[in-house]
Design brief:
The complex is a heterodimer.
Chain A lengths: L6 H36 L5 E5 L5 E5 L3 H32 L5 H8 L2 H14 L7 H22 L1 H4 L2 H25 L8
Antiparallel strand pairs in A: 1-2
Chain B lengths: L1 H25 L4 E14 H4 L18 E13 L2 E5 L14 E2 L4 H4 L12 E3 L18 E5 H11 L4 H4 L18 H12 L3 E4 L3 E4 L2 E5 L9 E7 L2 E5 L7 H6 L10 H15 L5 E2 L17 E3 L5 E6 L10
Parallel strand pairs in B: 3-5, 5-6, 6-7, 11-12
Antiparallel strand pairs in B: 1-2, 1-4, 1-14, 2-3, 8-9, 9-10, 10-11, 13-14
Classes of the chains: A mainly alpha, B alpha/beta.
C-alpha cells in the first residue's frame, strides 16, 4: 500500500530524518569517545616488577621483555666469571705490592686470566642482544676487552719490574669495573645487596 | 761527689717526671661527627635485625614494625690536624634505584658541610671492605687507607675456593646469599688496589695504635673476615666506631645479632663486648646502620641536623677549642 504525502509533510519528514541522523551521529561520537576513555582507563599501566633491594627491600622497575630477560640470563654466567677473574687480577696486584709474591708470581697468577677473558669475549659475541640492549652489550664487550688488555699489561711487570704497567693496567680495570657495574645495574638490579 | 749525685738525682727525677707526663702530653682529644652518606629505604626490619622481625597483628613494639630506613653512616674524626674518616660510604649513582637508596650525596661534598675539604682527609679507616663502606676511596686521593690484612686474605680465600658456590662474587642475580666473596665487587676491590698501588694503604695486622687517642681493634669475623673497630678519645669519653660489626645500636644494647653477612655471631658479640669494656657501656658505640640514628632515641646522635639532599649529620663531640659545625 502506498501512501501519499504532501510537500510540506515530505519536507517535515526529511527534516526529522536529518535531525535524527545528526543526533545519531552526535550520540555515536559521544559513545566512541566514552568507549575510548573507558579503554584508556582500563589499559594496564606499564608493567612493573618488584626486585630485590637493600636487605630484600623492594623497588619498582619496568619489567624486562622476554628477549631482554633471555639476554640477561645468558650473560649472567659469563659475568660471574668475568668479575671473579677481575677481582683475582686485582688481588694479584695487591699481593705483589704487599710483598707476598714476586714479579714472577704476578705473571703466574695473571697470565692464565687472559684466555679466560678471551673465552668470555667469544661467548659474549655469540649472544644476540635485543635492540634495546645493544648499547649495554657493547659496553660489556668493551669491559671484557679492557680487562683483557689490563691482564696483558699487568704481566709486563714480570719482565722489567716497572710499576707503570700496574698503574696502566689498574686504570683499564677500574674503567672496566665501572662498565660492568653499569650493565649489572640494568640487567641484574640488586646484584650487590647492601652489606 | 755530692754535687754530681745531686745532679744525677735531679736528672733522674726529671726523667721520671717526663716519663709520667709523656702519656698525658700525648693524649689526643678528638672531635667526632657522623654523616649519613645515604639511606636504604623501606628495608624489612627482620632482614636486618632478626629478633625484630615483623609479626602481623602483633602489639609487641619489638615486632610490630614492618620496614625501616637504614642510614649509611660515616664517622668524621678530627684529632689535632688529622682528619680521619671511619668508613666512606659509596658513590655509584647507577645503584641508587636498585638498592632503594635515598638522600645520597658524594661524601666529599657532604664533609664540606662540616667545613672540611676532601683533600685534607689524611686517613680512611674502613671497618670492612664491603662496597657500601669502602666505595668512595677515589674521592679522597691524599688519604691513607687502613684495612685489615685478614680482610684481604678472607676475600682472596673465598675467590679461590674450589667450589663455585663459595668462590662466586655472588652466585645469583639479585643477591649474594651471604657467600664469603659477596659484597666485594670488582669496582670496590679495584679502588682498594688503587690505594695499595699508590703507596697509600696501611695493611693492618690485628690491633694498632693509629695515633695517641685513636686505636684500631681487630674484630675479625664480627661482620667480615677482617672487620675492625675504631676507638677514639673524645671529651665525652671514648667512642667505639664499629661499622657493620655494630650495624644496629639497639642490637648492641639488647645483645642481639644484626646484619649477618660473613659473620660469626660469637665474634659479633665479642665486638659488642669490646665497646662495653672500652667505653663503659653501650651508649658510645657508634653504629653504621642504626635506624634510630639522628634522633633522641639514639642519644649519641641526638645533636643532629639535616644537610644536603636530606642527608643527616650529627655532632657527637667537640674537642676543647673546636667550634661547632652545626648550623
Amino acid at each position: 500500500m502506498q501512501t501519499q504525502v504532501s510537500g510540506w509533510e515530505r519536507t517535515a519528514q526529511v527534516a526529522v530524518l536529518k535531525g535524527f541522523g545528526v543526533g545519531a551521529l552526535v550520540v555515536g561520537l559521544i559513545a566512541l569517545v566514552a568507549v575510548a576513555a573507558v579503554r584508556e582507563t582500563a589499559k594496564p599501566k606499564e608493567q612493573q616488577v618488584e626486585v630485590n633491594s637493600a636487605f630484600g627491600g623492594l623497588t619498582e622497575r619496568p619489567a624486562m621483555t622476554a628477549a631482554e630477560e633471555t639476554y640477561a640470563q645468558a650473560l649472567w654466567p659469563i659475568h660471574a666469571l668475568v668479575k671473579q677473574n677481575a677481582v683475582n687480577m686485582a688481588f694479584a696486584g695487591i699481593a705483589y705490592k704487599m710483598g707476598d709474591i714476586k714479579r714472577a708470581g704476578v705473571k703466574a697468577r695473571v697470565a692464565p686470566l687472559t684466555p679466560t677473558f678471551d673465552a668470555a669475549l667469544a661467548r659474549v659475541n655469540k649472544l644476540q642482544p635485543p635492540a634495546s640492549m645493544r648499547e649495554l652489550h657493547q659496553e660489556y664487550t668493551d669491559a671484557i676487552m679492557l680487562y683483557r688488555s689490563s691482564s696483558v699489561t699487568m704481566v709486563k711487570v714480570a719482565d722489567d719490574g716497572l710499576d707503570r704497567h700496574l698503574i696502566e693496567a689498574h686504570g683499564m680495570s677500574d674503567k672496566a669495573a665501572g662498565l660492568t657495574l653499569k650493565v649489572g645495574d640494568a640487567l641484574w638490579p640488586g646484584e650487590y645487596k647492601p652489606n | 761527689m755530692k754535687k754530681s749525685m745531686k745532679h744525677a738525682l735531679v736528672a733522674a727525677g726529671l726523667a721520671a717526671a717526663a716519663t709520667l707526663a709523656a702519656p698525658v702530653a700525648q693524649a689526643q682529644v678528638c672531635s667526632a661527627w657522623l654523616v649519613e652518606n645515604s639511606r636504604f629505604m623501606n628495608v624489612p626490619f627482620g632482614m636486618f635485625h632478626p629478633d625484630r622481625s615483623f609479626v602481623q597483628g602483633s602489639d609487641n613494639p619489638r615486632n610490630n614494625v614492618n620496614k625501616v630506613d637504614l642510614p649509611v653512616n660515616v664517622g668524621v674524626i678530627k684529632c689535632g690536624k688529622e682528619l680521619i674518616l671511619y668508613d666512606n660510604g659509596w658513590n655509584w649513582t647507577d645503584y641508587h634505584k636498585a638498592t632503594g637508596t635515598g638522600h645520597w650525596s658524594p661524601l666529599s661534598k657532604q664533609i664540606t658541610q662540616l667545613g672540611f675539604d676532601a683533600k685534607d682527609v689524611s686517613k680512611v679507616i674502613v671497618g670492612h671492605g664491603h662496597w657500601d663502606h669502602a666505595g668512595s676511596l677515589d674521592e679522597f686521593p691524599n688519604a691513607i687507607l687502613y684495612i685489615q690484612r685478614e680482610e684481604l686474605k678472607g676475600i682472596e680465600w673465598a675467590l679461590n675456593y674450589p667450589h663455585p658456590r663459595i668462590s662466586a662474587v655472588n652466585d645469583s642475580p639479585g643477591g649474594c646469599n651471604r657467600t664469603p666473596a659477596c659484597g666485594y665487587p670488582s669496582k670496590t676491590v679495584a679502588s682498594i688496589y688503587g690505594k695499595v698501588l699508590a703507596g697509600k694503604a696501611m695493611i693492618v695486622d690485628g690491633d694498632m695504635d693509629v695515633m695517641p687517642g685513636v686505636k684500631i681493634h681487630a674484630a675479625h669475623r664480627a661482620h667480615t673476615a677482617g672487620s675492625q673497630l675504631l676507638e677514639v678519645n673524645t671529651p665525652i669519653g671514648k667512642l667505639m666506631f664499629g661499622s657493620d660489626a655494630y650495624s644496629s645500636w639497639e642490637a648492641i644494647r639488647d645483645w642481639e645479632v644484626a646484619n649477618i653477612q660473613q659473620t660469626d655471631s660469637v665474634q659479633q658479640f665479642l665486638a659488642y663486648e669490646k665497646c662495653y669494656k672500652v667505653t663503659g657501656g653501650y651508649q658510645n658505640c657508634v653504629s653504621a646502620h642504626e635506624p634510630l640514628s639522628y634522633s633522641d632515641k639514639y642519644p649519641i646522635t641526638k645533636n643532629h641536623w639535616v644537610g644536603m639532599n636530606g642527608g643527616r649529620l650529627a655532632e657527637i663531640a667537640l674537642a676543647p677549642g673546636e667550634k661547632s659545625r652545626k648550623p
